[in-house]
Amino acid sequence: MEERLPILILLGLTASLANICGGWIVSSQPRFRRTALNTFISLGAGFMLAAAILEVIPRSLALSKLAGPAILGGYLFVHLVEHTIASHFHFGEETHADEIFGARAAWSALAGLALHAFFDGALIAAGFWVSMQLGILLFLAIFLHKIPEGFTAASIMRASGRSGAAVVGAAAAISISTLAGVVSIAWSYALVQTALPFSAGVTLYVAASDLIPEVNKEKGIKVSVGVFLGVVLFLISEFLLGMFL
């Protein structure tokens, strides 16, 4: 792992900066093109779904006999969080000020996103413990939805009437949480047998229960095709990485 650590830290920083980028879009672009955001959401959904089912879950099951319960636990954990702590957000632009009406609801939604981000980082680090190829694949899967994630955090704050500083700070908080997830696993192989399958469940939920429903809200075929393109992008990435790593 020592030789992979610099690459892991660099990719972790890159993923976290994508959160900042999403927040910057909200704070600096009052009329951001929704289609551009939907492209990231649909590609990320397909890529993450393929990564979870074709790579992370099989690798997790090979690592531990308790991987199955851990995967289910990760899935149910996010389900619980999103229906209790963070019941007021969806991925994408939050425009329903009547739903995000106060500081408590806004900060609760942000806490839910921060948990998402933490397990994103943990998944990347756990993947690097298994192999360089898996780590890079998981980075790509996470990276594709990091801009929408930062965008979501910042738009929640804007919809709740918070200041410009709070809008930027929300994206920064998500960014820090991503890095914290990376660091929490980067120096401890003992955590991988639990972190990889649990994060697999989290990833499966984000892809299938968060991102896909966002795609399904859009009319027309273009965004739906993006999900399939995300799967194809995963398969191409896996093939190319297999050739060179």
Gist of the model:
This protein is an all-alpha fold and 245 residues long. It has helices at 5-28, 34-63, 67-82, 103-130, 132-143, 146-159, 164-186, 192-216, 222-244. α3 (67-82) packs across α8 (192-216).
Describe what you observe in this structure.
There is one protein chain. The chain is mainly α and 245 residues long. It has one domain (5-244). Helices cover 80% and strands 0% of the residues. It has 9 helices and no strands. The protein has helices at 5-28, 34-63, 67-82, 103-130, 132-143, 146-159, 164-186, 192-216, 222-244. Helix 1 packs antiparallel against helix 4, helix 2 crosses helix 9 (222-244) and helix 6 packs antiparallel against helix 7 (164-186). Residues 94-101 have low confidence and may be disordered.
